[in-house]
Amino acid sequence: MNYSLQNEWLSLTVSTTGAEAVSVKAPNGHEFLWKAQPDVWPRHAPILFPYTGLLPQGTRSWQGKEYPCTLQHGFARDKQHKLVSQTADTLAFQLCPDEETRAVYPFDFVLQSTFVLVKNTVHHTVQVQNPGNAQLRFGLGFHPGFRCPFDSKKTLAEYELRFDPPQPGAALHNYPTTETPVNCIPLTLHTFADGPLLLRHPKASTITLAERGSARRVVCHIGGYPYCLLWSPPTAPGHLVCIEPWHSLPDFDANGTAWETFAPAAQLAPGETWATTLTTEYWC
């Protein structure tokens, strides 16, 4: 089921499936988010929880017991979240464990996703609470996908990703090495041919998907995030660009890993709460 917020700058629609934003529109009807075309990328802007990426071994253990983890980016993006609050400018959704989640993730949790619409800006806060009697460990990331080009009158070559302040070249992985800071990345059909670009401990506080020669842009505030991935499906470039601030990275050990040794976004004692916010400005 979908729920919507609207003001004079934007309309925002969020689905209870995944507590995922499925539409961000300007008053002129311009849609900023990717339309989830199945043969390109069947998502809009999913939440990645309780881990990011794909576990190469397909399992993760806790206290000596193996749990299957075969879903890429975890299960939250496919679960039904309950609407728990709605005001004129706020939507809040909640996900709690069930039999299905406990079979793959042996922790008690309350995952709350709150969207706040302020002028031309969406603030998306994800809060994780530990209501249990044991430690809670998890990974988390955002994965919004934006239409690019913004419309059929433009080409991909008219767009770029801008870093403010510039990003040190040595900290931008899977991109040609440079001694000078990177101010922007021009978008071409080959930018993501070798996979996503990874910013480790980014110096940039914002990354902007910008249309050159106009004011149209999407500005993602990534300050405080230890990682940010930039990605577009390499088999179908020129459709969308994802700007993905993450608090944890995937496992790279194909021999198996344990939740005890996993580098989490957070590890919460009973009763503790952790939260993060992704702020995105939309200009059309």
Structural descriptors:
single chain; 284 residues; Beta-galactosidase, Chain A, domain 5; nine-stranded antiparallel β-sheet; five-stranded antiparallel β-sheet; 1 helix; 43% strand
- Quickly name the level 1 CATH class: Mainly Beta
Percent in helix? under 10%
| The CATH topology | Beta-galactosidase, Chain A, domain 5
Percent of sequence in beta strands: 35-45%
Using the CA coordinates, give the radius of gyration. 19 Å
User: How does CATH name the architecture?
Assistant: Distorted Sandwich
N to C succession of SSEs:
EEEEEEEEHEEEEEEEEEEEEEEEE
Poorly predicted ranges: none
Mean pLDDT: 94
How many individual β-strands? 24
- Structural class, please? mainly beta
Count helical runs: 1
Give the neighbour order of strands across the main sheet. 7-8-9-10-24-19-18-14-16
**Oligomeric description of these chains:** single chain
Tally of discrete structural domains: 1
Amino-to-carboxy terminus distance: 27 Å
Major sheet summary line: 9 strands, antiparallel
The coarse silhouette is: globular
